[in-house]
């Protein structure tokens, strides 16, 4: 009995000490959570815009688009922006379920347009971003400098030997990247009768690393790339000229023997969002900038390692006139 | 990541009781000779028939099966708003899980309601974690947990870590809700077990990329889908281990209970469950680890947390930031692993320790609870306790250090590594791959079936035949053979490392203690973190994929072999030493032969872990099935093909699992 009482006392005294400590800390106090909500949370009248669900597809250029649009929507229009990191295919799927309001940088994707805009009618187009998407074959700058004639596809076979790797089975290696890229490269190699083999690096990361290393160590690499792209501000890759694009020359995927068209990158929004009357929709519709603009913000994010929000802030503050045109 | 723990447990007793001590067991020359003969016939026929009937399929080509799968997907997507199955079943599930996730996030990671911060701030979370770890484990793991959680804040990743923790907790909770009952069922009934096993195999070997897209189709984008994806991957270990625990309760005990007149229900709740508690907690532990392994992949469908940081850093090749986030995942895994392990051992430890401490336990627990509540209250009320103070300076240091190390390695080692790559690729991988992909399909299939039958018995032969048939059905035979070649080469490397380091660790407790933490880290660190440095070292090649797979799979093999070597009785080793054997002789003549079943188990696990990296390999130039899976995830018209590729990976896994397990049973018999 006595022992039990002692235990009990020990427990109580321990508790008392801790409670006292807690109270003491409480007394020291400090700012309370939620004290400054009025200042930080409700900047401006957020009632009208509501929540804006913005898909962020996984490349830095897109991230730049999203950062700036989100920044403007948040700070100028008082929207609550929810960014969702998704691959294209899944982002489009979200239009129908109301989980995604807008995709800001669409590269062609006629298959998705047919499915979601024409058939399911869950999405609509919202005009160009102003960015020109250029796809093609690129070589590192040192190579273009050392062998200027390499930028003409007719001379590629002459150098095929140099592009051989352990993966290319005795032919020259043409390095392709992420499986989500729009590519005709296998058909191109076949139809242009080049002594090359398309090798799939499998991701954009792998492709960029290959080019970065090639430029640094003067290695022979030729592969798929595209602009606008932040990496070009680090290593300005040089485009190889393929037979010029003419309308319709890529109609039959198996017989393509011409360069890629210049893509007019455009915005897609969900049908519901377009009708909602949200100021965010007007912003998305009017959002328009140049490849240089995008590359600048992308460079802030990827090379200078700024957060997307800080990068957007920097650009928006330096380009007041452009932003004003979007929100007028 | 598959059946690891359960298998090693199952075979351990067999290892511990070696039958014929010093004498080399009689080699079966018959079997080795048959295998050699099969391989010889293959080589001869290959020379004659090379390049014929290889069933190759170009990257953009589809078969009818692939198109059919596409059509299914489209019809599901088109009528998901009218289908009653969605309206009354899937949507309800989604709602429940979504609410659960949101609730936990509001609690610890996300601003909730009008509050700019979560309900419980960092101080509260750290305090609760410490208290719970102490209550279920001991003060040592509590200290580790507090240190680990504080480290997240110092890394500047507090919120991300809490998002990850919230997701892992929800997924583990939901997984256990199903896993424990299913595991008990499978433990009680052999028939249930037989029915469940193929499903569990499918859940664990099917690459997660394959079901991410369908899951978002069914459960939409966000927390619910991410949780369900994690549950699918993480539940099987808990089911298997629970079943194993129930089954390994000694029969005599159950019989004793029966003879005392216990009902079925009583013997379950009073005998079976309490007696298997310890093992079941280990199952929980494995489920937590598996859930953490999904963190980065779930980020692809917008799961919040550390995975997102890793993925975003990868886009701009920012190794430092990715490593910092990866490190947080490793720390979380270590904390959760040690706490659950301590929890499983606590009951026993408490029983063994004298009463003095037990007496104090109750009042101390109460005092601790009050302290934790005070901390929670503080963190709910005051900003300094809610928001982690400081700028995360440790994180920046970690990131820059990781960057510097990678840059140094890339600059100084790439000549060396390229040479190594070329030797392995030209000397081993290319010949082997061309043997597999350039032989006619029926020849390779026949060889596989024959090898399966010779090594694993007729049952394994039949399984191989079925798997080979289904592989042809997927339309991806050639890609499957390319993947098989890389997988086997990777497994050979894994076994080389496994034997070298396993023996070393098995022979020295010191080496074991030094190496084990880095092995743990290699298993938990998301592979996406080390892809960039590997790409710099080896380029976008099949070999890079092999190296990544080896890093992931070797730790398991090493651990299993080390355990096997350690299980060789000390007396046997002493006897050999006194007989004048050199160290080399002891290793090759005594320790390795006697841990033969550990070696087969290590091969089995090594292979399956390597296979689970096939998709990651597809991201760094391995092509074949891995690329098909990723492509199916990214491009609408390749969806069906990606699904078929996922199936092909499962089939390869099942085929090898059955052959090696049957072979293991034969060698240990």
From TrEMBL, chain A:
Protein name per UniProt: Glycine/betaine-binding protein
SUPFAM superfamilies with a match to the protein in the record: Periplasmic binding protein-like II
Span of domain ABC-type glycine betaine transport system substrate-binding: 53-317
Entry keyword set: Signal
Signal among keywords: yes
Organism of derivation: Streptomyces asoensis
Recorded superkingdom: Bacteria
The keyword Isomerase belongs to this UniProt entry's keyword annotation: no
Signal peptide residues on this chain, from the entry's feature table: 1-29
Automatic annotation (TrEMBL), chain B:
Pfam families referenced in this protein's UniProt entry, alphabetically: BPD_transp_1
Record carries keyword Transmembrane helix: yes
InterPro entries referenced in this protein's UniProt entry, alphabetically: MetI-like, MetI-like_sf
Primary site of residence: membrane
Protein's cellular compartments: Cell membrane; Membrane
Keyword Transmembrane: yes
Domain ABC transmembrane type-1: 161-340, 480-660
Transmembrane annotation, as ranges: 32-49, 141-158, 165-189, 209-235, 280-301, 321-343, 364-385, 441-472, 484-507, 527-554, 606-626, 638-656
Record SUPFAM superfamilies: MetI-like
Biased composition (Low complexity): 14-23
Disordered: region residues: 1-23
PROSITE patterns tied to this protein: ABC_TM1
Protein family membership: Belongs to the binding-protein-dependent transport system permease family.
Designated name of the protein: Glycine/betaine ABC transporter permease
């Amino acid at each position: 009995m006595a022992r039990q009482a002692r235990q009990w006392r020990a427990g109580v005294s321990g508790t008392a000490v801790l409670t006292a400590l807690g109270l003491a800390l409480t007394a020291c106090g400090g700012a309370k959570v939620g004290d400054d909500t009025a200042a930080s949370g409700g900047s401006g009248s957020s009632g009208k815009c509501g929540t804006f669900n913005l898909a962020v597809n996984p490349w830095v250029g897109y991230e730049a688009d999203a950062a700036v649009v989100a920044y403007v929507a948040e700070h100028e229009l008082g929207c609550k922006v929810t960014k969702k990191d998704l691959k294209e295919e899944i982002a489009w799927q979200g239009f129908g379920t109301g989980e995604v309001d807008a995709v800001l940088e669409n590269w062609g994707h006629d298959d998705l347009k047919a499915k979601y805009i024409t058939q399911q009618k869950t999405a609509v187009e919202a005009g160009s971003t102003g960015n020109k998407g250029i796809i093609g074959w690129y070589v590192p700058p040192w190579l273009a400098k050392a062998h200027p004639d390499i930028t003409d596809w007719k001379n590629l076979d002459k150098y095929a030997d140099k592009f051989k790797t352990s993966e290319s089975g005795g032919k020259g290696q043409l390095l392709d990247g992420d499986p989500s890229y729009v590519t005709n490269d296998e058909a191109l190699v076949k139809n242009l009768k080049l002594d090359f083999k398309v090798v799939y690096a499998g991701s954009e990361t792998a492709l960029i690393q290959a080019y970065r290393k090639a430029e640094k160590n003067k290695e022979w690499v030729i592969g798929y790339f595209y602009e606008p792209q932040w990496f070009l501000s680090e290593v300005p890759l040089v485009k190889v000229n393929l037979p010029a694009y003419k309308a319709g020359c890529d109609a039959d995927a198996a017989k393509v023997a011409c360069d890629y068209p210049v893509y007019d990158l455009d915005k897609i929004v969900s049908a519901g969002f377009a009708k909602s009357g949200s100021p965010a929709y007007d912003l998305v519709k009017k959002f328009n900038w140049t490849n240089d603009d995008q590359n600048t913000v992308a460079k802030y994010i990827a090379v200078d390692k700024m957060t997307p929000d800080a990068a957007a802030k920097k650009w928006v503050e330096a380009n007041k006139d452009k932003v004003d045109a979007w929100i007028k | 990541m598959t059946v690891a723990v359960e298998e090693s447990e199952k075979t351990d007793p067999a290892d511990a009781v070696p039958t014929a001590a010093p004498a080399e067991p009689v080699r079966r020359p018959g079997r080795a000779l048959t295998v050699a003969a099969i391989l010889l016939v293959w080589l001869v026929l290959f020379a004659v028939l090379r390049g014929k009937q290889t069933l190759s399929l170009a990257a953009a080509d589809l078969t009818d099966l692939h198109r059919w799968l596409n059509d299914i997907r489209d019809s599901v997507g088109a009528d998901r708003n009218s289908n009653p199955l969605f309206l009354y079943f899937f949507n309800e599930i989604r709602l429940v899980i979504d609410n659960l996730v949101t609730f936990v996030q509001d609690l610890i990671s996300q601003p909730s309601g009008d509050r700019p911060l979560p309900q419980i701030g960092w101080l509260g979370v750290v305090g609760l974690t410490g208290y719970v770890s102490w209550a279920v484990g001991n003060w040592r793991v509590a200290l580790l947990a507090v240190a680990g959680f504080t480290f997240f804040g110092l890394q500047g990743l507090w919120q991300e870590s809490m998002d990850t923790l919230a997701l892992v907790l929800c997924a583990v909770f939901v997984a256990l809700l199903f896993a424990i009952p299913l595991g008990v069922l499978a433990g009680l009934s052999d028939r249930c077990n037989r029915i469940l096993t193929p499903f569990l195999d499918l859940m664990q070997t099917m690459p997660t990329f394959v079901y991410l897209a369908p899951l978002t189709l069914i459960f939409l984008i966000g927390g619910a889908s991410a949780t369900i994806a994690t549950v699918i991957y993480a539940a099987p270990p808990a089911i298997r281990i629970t079943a194993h625990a129930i089954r390994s309760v000694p029969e005599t005990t159950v019989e004793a209970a029966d003879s005392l007149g216990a009902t079925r229900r009583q013997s379950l709740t009073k005998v079976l469950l309490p007696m298997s508690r310890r093992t079941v907690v280990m199952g929980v532990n494995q489920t937590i680890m598996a859930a953490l392994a999904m963190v980065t992949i779930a980020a692809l469908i917008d799961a919040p947390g550390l995975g997102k940081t890793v993925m975003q850093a990868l886009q701009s090749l920012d190794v430092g930031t990715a490593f910092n986030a990866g490190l947080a995942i490793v720390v979380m895994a270590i904390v959760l692993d040690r706490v659950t392990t301590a929890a499983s051992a606590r009951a026993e430890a408490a029983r063994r320790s004298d009463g003095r401490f037990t007496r104090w336990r109750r009042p101390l627990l109460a005092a601790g609870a009050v302290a934790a509540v005070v901390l929670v209250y503080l963190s709910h009320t005051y900003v300094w306790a809610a928001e982690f103070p400081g700028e995360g300076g440790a994180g920046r240091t970690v990131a820059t250090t990781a960057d510097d190390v990678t840059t140094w390695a890339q600059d100084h080692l790439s000549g060396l590594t390229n040479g190594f790559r070329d030797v392995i690729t030209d000397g081993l991988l290319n010949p082997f791959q061309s043997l597999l992909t350039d032989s006619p399909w029926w020849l390779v299939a026949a060889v596989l079936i024959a090898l399966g039958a010779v090594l694993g018995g007729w049952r394994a032969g039949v399984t191989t035949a079925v798997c080979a048939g289904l592989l042809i059905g997927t339309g991806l035979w050639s890609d499957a053979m390319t993947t098989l070649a890389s997988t086997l080469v990777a497994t050979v490397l894994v076994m080389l490392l496994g034997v070298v380091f396993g023996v070393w660790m098995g022979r020295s407790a010191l080496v074991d203690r030094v190496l084990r933490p880095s092995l743990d880290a290699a298993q938990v660190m998301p592979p996406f973190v080390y892809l960039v440095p590997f790409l710099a070292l080896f380029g976008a090649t099949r070999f890079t994929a092999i190296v990544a797979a080896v890093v992931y799979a070797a730790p398991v093999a090493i651990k299993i072999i080390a355990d096997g070597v350690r299980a060789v009785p000390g007396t046997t080793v002493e006897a050999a030493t006194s007989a004048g054997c050199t160290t080399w002789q002891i290793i090759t003549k005594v320790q390795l032969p006697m841990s033969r079943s550990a070696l087969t188990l290590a091969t089995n696990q090594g292979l399956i872990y390597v296979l689970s990296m096939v998709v990651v390999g597809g991201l760094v130039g391995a092509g074949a099935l891995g690329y098909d899976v990723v492509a199916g995830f990214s491009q609408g018209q390749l969806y069906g093909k990606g699904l078929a590729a996922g199936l092909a990976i499962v089939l390869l896994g099942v085929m090898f699992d059955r052959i090696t397990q049957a072979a293991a049973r034969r060698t240990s018999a």
